[in-house]
Specification:
- By secondary structure, the chain is of the alpha+beta class.
- The protein has a single domain, classed as 2-Layer Sandwich (archaeoglobus fulgidus dsm 4304 fold), CATH 3.30.2170.
- The chain contains 5 helices and 8 strands.
- An 8-stranded mixed beta sheet has the order 3-2-1-4-5-8-7-6, with helices on both faces.
- Strand 1 and strand 2 form a beta hairpin.
- The longest helix is centred in the C-terminal third of the chain and has 18 residues.
- It is globular and about 45 Å long.
Length: 234
């Protein structure tokens, strides 16, 4: 199935497709050097069809910005918790295809396998691109954990039905944890290690923080234009 077809699915069909994709997930060590890392984010109004996507690239490990790409697309797939990838992936894939170079690892703002069917946005996107992906979410979707200590980089494993699906990471003192889970083609421990390295004084890691800033700039600039909202980059 192509991402362009997602908007034609019913929610029940989307869930069935997640169960199919789940069989292909690879949580395994990433055994190549990481020279370029990317951060990806999406912006949209849950009641509108326009979706804004952005990816920012960084050199690694020094985290210097080396590139970015954006995309604006439409979807009629409804806003449903657990199925957000069906709204987000088509726009993200368009931004991905607009990149001049591809990152070795991509961090996405959202869940990896820390999802009731193990198919968060990071896992879904990793499966359709075969990229190494990590989910870094600001809220918990699935799993239980004990609150990590109130110190930077304190960790607490997240479990669902006896399976570890992620790690709650306290990125800085006196703030809520972020929820880290591998998406595809990378291990749990590597995912957490990469995110720890990407914390730069903010709650969320720098790759997704910068992607968030970029995609909201695109959304605001585009919303300010009269008429056709697809003319931002033409």
């Amino acid at each position: 199935m192509q991402p362009a077809d997602y908007e034609h699915l019913t929610p029940a069909q989307a869930i069935a497709y997640q169960h199919e994709l789940r069989k292909q997930i690879q949580i395994k060590p990433f055994d190549k050097p990481i020279d370029i890392i990317g951060g990806a984010d999406i912006s949209f109004n849950k009641y509108e069809e326009t979706v804004y996507a952005g990816i920012v690239l960084f050199s690694y490990p020094d985290l210097k910005i080396v590139g970015n790409a954006t995309a604006i697309s439409r979807t009629s797939f409804p806003y449903i918790s657990g199925l957000l990838a069906f709204r987000e992936v088509p726009a993200l894939l368009e931004a991905w295809n607009n990149l001049e170079i591809k990152p070795d690892v991509l961090v996405l703002d959202g869940q990896g396998i820390a999802h009731e069917r193990r198919l968060g946005i990071a896992t879904h996107f990793g499966l359709i691109t075969d990229a190494a992906t990590i989910g870094s979410a600001k809220s918990r979707l699935s799993g239980k954990y004990e609150e990590p200590a109130n110190i930077p980089f304190a960790e607490s494993p997240m479990y669902d039905k006896g399976e570890q699906i992620g790690i709650a990471l306290r990125s800085k003192r006196n703030c809520n944890p972020v929820y880290i889970s591998p998406g595809h083609n990378i291990s749990m421990q590597q995912s957490v290690d990469v995110i720890k390295h990407c914390i730069r004084g903010y709650r969320i890691p720098e790759p997704t923080r910068q992607a968030h800033l970029l995609v909201n700039q695109v959304r605001l600039a585009n919303s300010a234009k009269p008429g056709n909202q697809y003319d931002l980059f033409t």
